[in-house]
Task: structure prediction
Amino acid sequence: MKWNELFEKVKVNTAELGEMNDAYGKYERLINDRLTIDDGNKLKVIEDFVDTSNGIATIRNRSFRIKERELIKGPHWDNIKDLLKAIIGAKDQDKESKYEKLRDYIKQNVVKDGDSIPHAAILRLAASVMPDYLCTIAANNDMKNLLNYLEKNGLISNTVNWKGMSDFERSHFLRQEIQKDYNAYKEKETDTNRFRTCCCLLPWTIYEYFKSEDVCCEIEEILYDNYNVILTGAPGTGKTFLAKKVASFIITGDADFENLNGEDKVKFEQQSDFVQFHPSYDYTDFVEGLRPREKKRQVIFERHDGIFKEFCKRAATAMREDADESESDKRKFVFIIDEINRGEISKIFGELFFSIDPGYRGKKGIVKTQYQNMVSGVDEFKKGFYVPKNVYVIGTMNDIDRSVESMDFAFRRRFAFHEITATASQAMLSNIFPEIKDYMDRLNNAIVALDKGGLTESYQIGASYFKKIEGITVKQGQNKYKKLWDIYLKGVLYEYFRGLPNDEIEKKIESLYKAYEGKKKDQDKDDKGEDNDVNKDN
Result:
């Protein structure tokens, strides 16, 4: 991979960039004033920095706890401010030694009731006043993971001994590396503020991109061990989208299936297939069955392969052709079954329960199908049907679907299960309205709170629902988050509570809406805002 290819994949969203430009202006003014902040606003730089909506440094990554913030804002602030000023004013070769003085001072003095400031938070504090010099990622593990990803993908040379660098040196190295390569990528960029804010945001967006790729690696390993996996989770967690990403990652090495081109696009189309189960789906659709056709003005029935058997034929042919290839060069085939629990599993799979077992892949799992006597000619499966060893199956299902109870243990034993949580699905919200994650967090926390929703984490709502805000249009004076609630979220919650008395449902919905909007529990109940219409249709 090359840097320009990576930048294309993680393009900075315009709306988020606009917020960063505003935040960057605040920082620049504060830095130019060398932190001369009056007593009434003495910690503006810190308060802005930990603001989870402005995009600078934190990128909504909540690394500052309230206690840590209060410690910095305490009686040691004047000394901390002087140490920060010293770092800003130092020559490049002296900045780290000045930073070490700040770190040592905070570690030794800024302690209260056993609480202290962690190293990562101190580095973030320095980054908040030097966003042109230090990287916005301060946590040591996150920084190491990102540098590992970059090295693994050939974006930084393996001759660079970044593992031997201090945290401060690593932070500066990555910040300058990204700025250098992004400068070459955007060589015609004339808006210097836009350029700097892009460089400030890019470390986190790049890290989130590689983390999403890492999820693909994790599921890939499960498939190589077990051949079959089911992605489970709450509604809207992007299980189907992730299944396609994993398929693309296994087949082409690139998880971005929507933007494949050339040979990779052809490979993905030929080596993957997709089906969605439903109550009417059966064996004849999936494996094989009789289909009518007209012959000499008469209707006759002929045996036809189902979608899975046809797919396995392609895989078996490829496996035979690839016999002399190295293991890494052999073609792999991925079959996706969406909503796998909505079909009648025993009826659809039939005798394939045996062949699909990870222990019986290949010809040792061969079975005679219901229409085996009608298979003739040079058919790949003339002697019996088996699932080739280069076929991997990914299923998806919602944990809370009532049909989950109908899945028998014989089927469950043949599949590994991998949960996609609502929190994990937030990666898909990286490039839209920053505050949407806060709305999602507040609602999902309330869903599992005993005094509000009282449900389990399986009922938390995934990011796909919140991503719909991108397509919501509002008139002047309307609230897009209220509209998202009314159109997409409220109906799901009503379904969750179906069966309860109506008045109890209404109380729960109202409580969840207040949490979603960030309203405090003891807020004046006579408030005449739009909350009063929460349970009414538009």
Q: What stands out?
A: Residues 227-420 form a domain with the Rossmann fold fold (CATH 3.40.50.300). The first strand starts at residue 111 and ends at 112. The chain has a mean pLDDT of 80.
